[in-house]
Structure formats: structure tokens, C-alpha cells
Amino acid sequence: MQNVTSSSPLIFVFQGLRWPKYVKHSLRLAARTAQVPVVVLTNLEPLSGAPEVSWFKIADFYQRKDFDDFQRESNLPRAFRNGFWFHTVERFFILRDFMSSRGITHCFHGELDCVFLHLNELEIEIKTAGLAGFFFPRETSDRGLGSLVYMNNLESLSNLCEHFLKHACLGLPDASAGNEMHLLGLLPHDGKNGQFHALPTAEWFFRKDSDSWPVYSSGARSIVDGAALGRWVFGMDPANTGGRGTSNLIQNHRFLVPFHHELAALEFKFSRQSWKLHGRNKSEDEWFQIRVLHVHSKVHHKLTARYVSRVLARVNYSKRTVVVPPTAKYFLGVFRRVARQLFFLAQNKDLRADQWQRLRARVNTARKRP
Predict the structure, then answer these.
(1) For residue range 325-354, what is the model confidence (pLDDT) as tens digits?
(2) Number of domains within the chain
């Protein structure tokens, strides 16, 4: 295992039983574009081909008693994707123990399916604000996310874990409450006087009044994507589309928390050389630098500067891109359903006559339209 440098690292936590295919590409990209040291906490063997990453074994430092208490009190679904909802909470307990055991006082933590851009500059902005605590993206007043968090105070992370323990009983079997996003959303809107601070998200592009929740600085120049920008640019997770693949320009989806501002109002510009991404509301002159983009579709193997530039250019003209095509299994399923319906029509004279009658009615209705 390697040592962590003195500057703020970007720390990933992976608790799965095997590496997803996209992870190696994500780590390589983070090592190139985050501009901070990259660290992975896991109990798996380190991945080959990621030489600029430092690896630490979770079992060497983690005491999971507190999290066992959370797990015992929560009714979140345990079987869903091998304990997904519990892993999203447990990572913060792991981070707490890692920082404490290593004497780390400040770091970033990110999710592996994101892209991280020039986090060193974001840290400078936060330091300029003169605040200490736990910083996280808040996309609505009652929903926080963990795509990227920043901590420059270990006590605030310990208090966050206590907050999770206190509210573990809110967890419901359908994960509609008591999940990590809900519990982060319950954190107080303390502003400058507290230890929990909001990072600007896509909502910041549309902010016109002071009634929204406070962020770490009223003059913030950076955007940290929680979820909305990522699905707009790179689509949804194909695991949630039943083999249909995914395209981008997704404003909302029935299974996702809605984003009420019109994302088509945004414009992006991207530098292939520096990997700097900026965005703005087309009705405003001011550009903001996007530090994190949540790539739900997990197409990190595609994310060359050329590909990102091309997709963003199409987004600016409201042109959809097929990010992940439908699978062969999906097309086979469609073929089987059509074949089954044709078979039933061929075998049933009454059903065949009924279908022809419906078709004639539709044709006649179409002819009568002006």
C-alpha cells in the first residue's frame, strides 16, 4: 500500500465483490482530470493498469460496529443489488475510520461513476470562503447527494455518522425514505454558522432569489452535479432500462426525483486540451465551471476528449445521442412478443376480425382529420 500525499486526495470507497467493467476507465480518467491524488478503499485486489492510484484495504482499519447498529435499525431493502442502499451509507463510516486512522484532516470523496474535473480549484474556492465542515451537493431542499463531498473537519464527518444512526429508523422497505439521499437532505441548512454546507448543483444555473437553501458562498463559481446534468448529457444507467439502452437529453424519468428547471435552457463549452467544462443558462451571461458530471450510463470507456466534445455540441443544439444502444437480448424479446401476437391472430378468427375492425376505425379517424 502507498502513502497518501499531504494535499487533499479524492477517495473512492468500493465494497462490492468484484470490479465493474467501467471502474478501471473511471480511475484512469480521475487520475488525469481531477488534478488531486486518487485513493481507493476496498477489500478487493488492486486493479492493474491504474498506476497513479493509491490502494488501501478496508479490513485493515475499519471497525463496523456503528454501522451494524444502523443496519439493525433500518428497514431499507437488503437484497436490492447486493445491499446497495446500505453501501451508500456505510461508505461514510468507512471514510471516518480511514481519515481517523491516517490523520487525514481534509479530502474529497466521490462516486466511481462520475467524472471529476480540476478539484484542486474547487478546494481553493472553498478555502477562500473560510468555512469548515462537510460539503455536499444539494439538488433540492430535502435531497442531498454523494456524487462528490468535501471534508476539512473530521468532527463534521463523525457528526454525519451520528446523524445517520439517529435517523436509521426512517428506512423503509421500498427505499422511499431513510436512504442516504434522504438522510443527507435532512441535514440542517446551516449556512455559514454550521458544519454542513451545500455545494452548488444544476439548480444554481436557475437561481433568481434568496429563498433557496444557502450554498457555501454566494459568489460560488463551480457546479457539482448531483444527478440532473449527468442524465441530460450522458443518459441513464442501462441497468434501469430493461435492455433498451439509453439516450441523453433526459429531463425527468418516472423512477427518478424530478428536476423542475428546464435543462434545455443550458449551454456548455468544453476544452479538449485542459478538460475544463463550463456551463451557463442561455438567458444569462455568466459561465460556471462544472467540477463533477455524474455519468449514470457508466460509459467511461468512451470518454475521450473528442467524444465528450461531440456529445456536448449536440446537446447544445438539442440533438439526442444514443449513448448505449439496445442489447441483442432486448431485440430478441421484441421479436418474440411480435411473433407470439401474430401466432394468436393466425389461430383466432374472432380476434383477427376484431383487430382488422380496430385498424379500419383508426384509418377512418385519421382521414377525417383536417
Answers:
(1) 988 887 787 778 878 777 777 777 777 777
(2) 2
Burial letters 199-209, b for 16+ CB under 10 A, else e: bbbbbbbbeee
pLDDT in tens, 120-160: 999 999 999 999 999 999 998 889 999 999 999 999 999 99
The residue range of the domain holding 43 is 10-324
As given in the structure block, the three cell numbers for residue 346 are 393466425
- Residue 195, number of CB atoms within 10 A of its CB: 18
**Residue 138 in 3-state DSSP?**
strand
Nearest to 34 by CA among 130, 145, 117, 138: 117
Instruction: With respect to residue 1, please indicate whether it lies within any of the assigned structural domains.
Output: no
pTM for this structure? 0.88
User: C-alpha grid cell for residue 302?
Assistant: 468512451
Burial 241-271 (b: 16+ CB within 10 A, else e): beebbbbbbbeeeeeebebeeebeebbbebe
Within a domain: 330: no
Residue 251, CB-side half-sphere exposure with 13 Å CA sphere: 8
Answer yes or no: are the C-beta atoms of 321 and 309 closer than 8 Å: no
Q: Report the interhelical angle of 328-347 vs 349-368 (nearest 10°).
A: 110
Compute the Cα dihedral for 177, 179, 181, 184 and give only its sign.
Answer: positive
What pLDDT, on a 0 to 100 scale, did the predictor assign at position 6? 52
Answer positive or negative: Cα dihedral of 261, 262, 263, 265: negative
Long-range pairs of 265-270 with CB within 8 A, sequence gap ≥ 24: 265/205, 265/206, 266/202, 266/205, 266/229, 266/232, 267/316, 268/233, 268/312, 268/315, 268/316, 269/312, 270/305, 270/308, 270/309, 270/312
Summarize pLDDT for 316-329 with one digit per residue, the tens.
999 999 999 988 88
Do 59 and 85 fall within a single domain?
yes
| Number of CB atoms found within 10 A of residue 173's CB | 12
Of 258, 289, 257, 283, nearest in space to 271 by CA: 289
Determine, yes or no, domain membership for 2: no
